[in-house]
Specification:
This protein is mostly helical. It is 72% helix and 0% strand. It has helices at 3-31, 36-57, 61-71, 75-98, 115-137, 150-154, 172-187, 191-215, 218-236, 240-266, 279-286, 288-303, 310-318, 334-340, 353-384, 390-407, 413-419, 421-442. The protein is globular, with a radius of gyration of 22 Å. The chain starts with a helix and ends with a helix.
């Protein structure tokens, strides 16, 4: 691609970066509150309008090895990719604005979270999570031995037969329990109760860190620390400035996560890691796949047969909680199929939300997916608008992190449902138990 074409693309992305950031600021200034859609937009702006600018002008040797080939593809692919990201951004915000969703929240319908039920359920889920991690990891070496195999487990490379992989999804019970111990630490008045809740938080958080490191998922590690940060900030006052700081912090953490996890697994620094810790390199390198995905997909659509993945994705969503061993052998995740279209690739290349929309139904997908995601975010914002309980605030923080870091750059709804299985079970268990208690007390 010549310099003139690069300048045209950079100018378009720069204009969109300025306009979208200004719209975000004016909307916050008017409403004086942060919503889930604002979290989504901040990460979308960074990934789809800022990252491409650095991508087009990155000259790092490490970057060139991985991504430079896509800069040699025709200008038309880059221009079309640019318009795709703009169209998706405009549509999702238009759908969010004009879709009418009313959730009536009367005071008498508000569920009171009982401390005794909360403690009992949280303790039970902590035990389930820790026990599940023990069962899953004992073949590799409990508790630390499994971390050495993290990169192999992430890429689904089986080197040790583990008959207890079924327990892996249940490890997340400890993760969510650790977050929810924070609520009891804050709510308890007695010193002994606070100390007990704090000790249980430390234990569950310790095993949460181990199970997260065992998956070698940079996204999950970031989530682990971001949720408590957003929860405590939101308990006071969450400003747009704080959200931007959180966004930049999480991106910097993501950029360094490979070297951090490598050091934890092996006890030494990875000599192959190029120490370019400026934010421009981190953004272009770590999120470069969101740009190359679109270029690669458009190129492949023109030169070979690329299947529409909507039926396969729907089957994955319906079977998201079914153990992998029981799923049909030909059922691929969107990320794995995306990887097959790359000429040279190792591991699994995630699918970003804009590329996913084209995979699912081509141009129609570029309309339907913003409608679907915009509606879900609007529904969630309407639901949390009237919720004051600390329990709902931490659920709000978890959802914000999931939407920001999962949906934008790592879109796969089946994987999202699979990884949040524990949260969904926990939420409905607590609500049902508290509702039953409230009914019994009122009889």
């Amino acid at each position: 691609m010549n310099i003139e074409n690069k300048i045209i693309l950079v100018l378009i992305y720069l204009i969109m970066l300025i306009i979208s950031t200004l719209c975000l600021y004016l909307r916050f200034k008017k409403l004086k509150k942060i919503r889930i859609i604002d979290f989504f937009n901040i990460y979308y702006i960074i990934v789809y309008f800022l990252v491409p600018i650095f991508y087009l002008y990155s000259s790092s040797p490490k970057f060139n090895i991985k991504y430079s080939i896509f800069l040699s593809y025709g200008f038309k692919y880059h221009l079309l990719s640019c318009f795709m990201s703009i169209i998706f951004y405009v549509l999702i915000n238009l759908f969010y604005k004009y879709i009418k969703i009313n959730i009536h929240s009367k005071k008498e319908e508000e569920i009171v979270i009982n401390d005794k039920i909360f403690f009992s359920l949280n303790f039970l889920f902590s035990v389930i999570g820790i026990f599940s991690f023990y069962m899953w990891s004992k073949v590799y070496g409990f508790p630390f031995g499994i971390i050495k195999y993290a990169d192999l487990l992430r890429d689904n490379k089986v080197i040790i037969d583990n008959p207890f992989t079924f327990f892996q999804p249940f490890c997340n019970f400890a993760l969510y329990a650790s977050y929810l111990w924070l609520i009891l630490i804050k709510q308890y008045k007695k010193r002994t109760n606070k100390i007990l809740a704090f000790l249980l938080f430390l234990i569950t958080f310790f095993f949460s860190v181990l199970s997260t490191l065992a998956t070698d998922s940079r996204m999950s590690i970031i989530t682990l620390f971001l949720v408590p940060i957003i929860y405590f900030l939101n308990s006071n006052k969450l400003s747009l400035k704080k959200i931007w700081v959180i966004g930049i912090f999480s991106i910097i953490m993501l950029g360094n996560m490979n070297s951090i996890t490598y050091f934890i697994r092996n006890g030494e620094i990875n000599e192959n890691y190029v120490n370019e810790n400026n934010i421009f390199f981190l953004l272009s390198y770590e999120f470069g796949f969101t740009y190359s995905n679109r270029i690669n997909l458009l190129y492949n659509i023109e030169h070979r047969e690329v299947k529409i993945t909507a039926p396969n994705d729907l089957a994955n969503i319906l079977l998201s909680w079914v153990p992998k061993s029981m799923k049909p052998t030909g059922l691929n995740t969107l990320g794995r199929y995306n990887t097959t279209l790359y000429t040279y690739a190792s591991g699994t290349i995630p699918t970003d939300i804009v590329t996913a929309s084209i995979y699912k139904a081509r141009i129609i997908g570029l309309i339907l997916l913003p409608l679907f995601v915009g509606s879900i975010i609007k529904l969630l914002d309407a639901f949390f608008a009237h919720k004051k309980s600390p329990f709902y605030k931490i659920i709000f923080a978890i959802i914000c992190v999931i939407i920001d870091l999962r949906l934008v750059a790592y879109y796969d709804l089946s994987e999202l449902l699979f990884s949040r299985f524990a949260l969904i079970i926990y939420y409905f268990s607590l609500i049902i138990l508290c509702k039953r208690r409230n009914i019994n007390e009122n009889v």
